[in-house]
Write a structure and sequence with these properties.
Helix content: 40-55%
CATH architecture of the domain at 19-131: Orthogonal Bundle
Mean pLDDT: 79
Shape: elongated
Radius of gyration: 21 Å
Number of strands: 2
Oligomer: single chain
Strand order of the largest sheet: 1-2
CATH topology of the domain at 19-131: Arc Repressor Mutant, subunit A
Order of helices and strands: HHHHEEHH
Low-confidence stretches: 134-147, 149-163
Distance between the termini: 49 Å
Largest sheet: 2 strands, antiparallel
Strand content: under 5%
């Protein structure tokens, strides 16, 4: 058996996150959805109809990534689209599933515990890693440079990738 006391903090954090995610995924699968589907249902339950790009911003994923989740939720009649506008909304069946999923989430939270110091440290760590601004935040432009260090053929300026 592993001696957890010897593990680096990052390994402990990743292992705890992975095990928690696996447990959560299994609970949601038993209900007929996924963690991503739960997030969508939660957001749609909090307000009026919403476009897919607006929903993606709220859930913090790209609109194209959200497409498969939305398709699955629509096929299961958990969300619907309004006529010509295509606005998304949660259905009564979606609200029912959301209620059951929320109960499971609360049970898991009680099982895991609510250590406020740990929560605060995790929130600070997430913010420090830059996740606070969501997927639309500007990312530095990276340019691939051949192994020999020569400029890309399409780069007429001849400038290096570092500057």
């Amino acid at each position: 058996m592993d001696d957890f006391a010897q593990w680096p903090t990052n390994r402990l954090l990743k292992t705890a996150a992975r095990l928690t995610e696996n447990t959560e995924t299994n609970h949601f699968r038993d209900l007929g959805t996924t963690p991503a589907g739960f997030a969508v249902l939660r957001v749609l339950s909090q307000g009026p109809q919403m476009s897919q790009p607006a929903l993606a911003r709220k859930v913090r994923v790209r609109p194209d990534t959200l497409g498969k989740v939305i398709d699955r939720l629509e096929r299961s009649a958990l969300i619907g689209r309004s006529g010509t506008s295509g606005q998304l909304s949660i259905t009564p069946a979606g609200r029912n599933l959301l209620h059951h999923a929320t109960v499971l989430e609360e049970e898991q939270e009680r099982t895991f515990g609510s250590d406020e110091q740990l929560r605060s440290e995790l929130i600070n760590r997430i913010r420090a890693l830059g996740l606070d601004s969501g997927p639309s935040r500007e990312r530095p432009h990276l340019k691939l440079v051949p192994k020999d260090g020569s400029p890309d053929e399409g780069d007429a300026s001849g400038s290096s990738a570092t500057g």
